[in-house]
């Protein structure tokens, strides 16, 4: 049908009474693509359909011009599914070598990726004892093995430390330059800041915005979500200072910061109110549905 | 697929399988002994120990093998449900591995294991038999092994669709056990006139394994054919309808 790397046309997916995807249509392109939205927005369902793990109830889906499962079975997709588990009695090296053999990659490729993601000596230990971060690295190495022309990664930054996340971003940027298409889903926008990929913003199974990240995510990137015991006080003070701050029903303070000066104002307000020790501020994280909605509504 | 089968074999042997098989053997041996105690009357030339041992070898080990076939079939479906619950299925099906290959690797590895476990159990019976010179075992070894593998395959073929539909470990095991018991009860209730039913075919096979009857050729052929529609239905469902995810 379409000429995109991934084409979704009026795709609907229901789980009983819940509509996970509601007639969504988008076309992803060569290079970097992001699927963003808060938890439960339908990102993983869309990824599962792209990977051929699920079938849509209605609509049309095409990956690299074919039915998703065929493309995956041909080895053209490197995947990081939402949920994963490995042969945990094997060592990391043993497991990745098995995957390399299945994907037709060499042992040198395994070693190269192990080094790139700093898996270090862990790879010689049995997978059962791995931390969540190390398991995530193994899952990413597995996806990258065999140099597939399309990478579909569901929340690849989950459980990764800052430095590994940076390394992964570099790897993905390089891949995109080498004509590899990357589709990644995330609810933590800070990780993809500065990467101007094609972005689809989803919310409750529907598309909210589509376009390049700079224009679509600009406001979301600048968003701070403040968890505090005195939300009203902070909101009142910030509004008086001319900041775009709102109070959510769940007592979260959502602030869209235009520049560094406003960021400083936010911290000064928190400090003045004596809340420095109890406050929790996160930037560009969309795990609260309500916060997401509020940001999208702020003019 | 060979690599997957090998990996699955390694995974399956991590279940407390050998322990279960040995325990099953011991339980069956004990049952065999209990069964024989009231009727065992030692002849002048045979001590009671010899008689008991003989009966244990006759009834105990062969019964154990039927139990092992059942356990291995359960283990096979359990490993599929576990793969689904833990997320290993998600990973394997996003590699260049077809759904059919994934399922076949499960089935083949379970069959290999059932063969090995049955051979092991049989060996446990054969060695003391020769040592005590108790005479011939009720059925030829190769035939017994073949029948055990067929029985394993039958159980597996009916447990497979159950697991694929229910997806979760505990409901799958409980339903599989209930179905297996229903098959057993069915064979007792329906009676000989419906001998073509799979329940009775496998009951005859079981009796044959116990050395309590002969085995008609058609029963043997039916035993081979019966698992096929169930297996094909399971493979078709997994290939076309089964969804991995929520």
Summarize the structure in short:
The complex is a heterodimer of chains A (299) and B (246). Chain A has 299 residues and is an alpha/beta fold.
Report on this structure.
Chain A has 299 residues and is α/β, with parallel strands linked by helices. Chain A folds into two domains: 6-216, P-loop containing nucleotide triphosphate hydrolases (Rossmann fold, 3-Layer(aba) Sandwich), CATH 3.40.50; 220-297, Elongation Factor G (Translational Gtpase), domain 3 (Alpha-Beta Plaits), CATH 3.30.70. Helix content of chain A is 35%, strand content 26%. Chain A has helices at residues 43-50, 68-73, 92-103, 107-116, 132-144, 162-177, 213-221, 231-240, 260-272, 289-297, and strands at 6-15, 18-28, 32-36, 58-63, 77-80, 150-154, 181-186, 198-203, 206-212, 223-227, 244-247, 252-256, 280-283. Chain A has a six-stranded mixed sheet, sandwiched between helices. A four-stranded antiparallel sheet of chain A has the order 11-12-10-13, with helices on both faces. In chain A, a hairpin with a 4-residue loop joins strand 11 and strand 12 (252-256). The longest helix of chain A is centred in the middle third of the chain and has 16 residues, at 162-177. The radius of gyration of chain A is 21 Å and the shape is globular. The two termini of chain A are 37 Å apart. Chain B is an all-alpha fold and 246 residues long. Helix content of chain B is 78%, strand content 0%. Chain B contains ten helices and no strands. Chain B has helices at 2-12, 17-36, 48-86, 88-92, 99-132, 141-166, 169-190, 198-209, 217-225, 227-240. In chain B, helix 1 packs across helix 5. Chain B is globular and about 60 Å long. The two termini of chain B are 27 Å apart. Mean pLDDT of chain B is 73; it is low at 32-42.
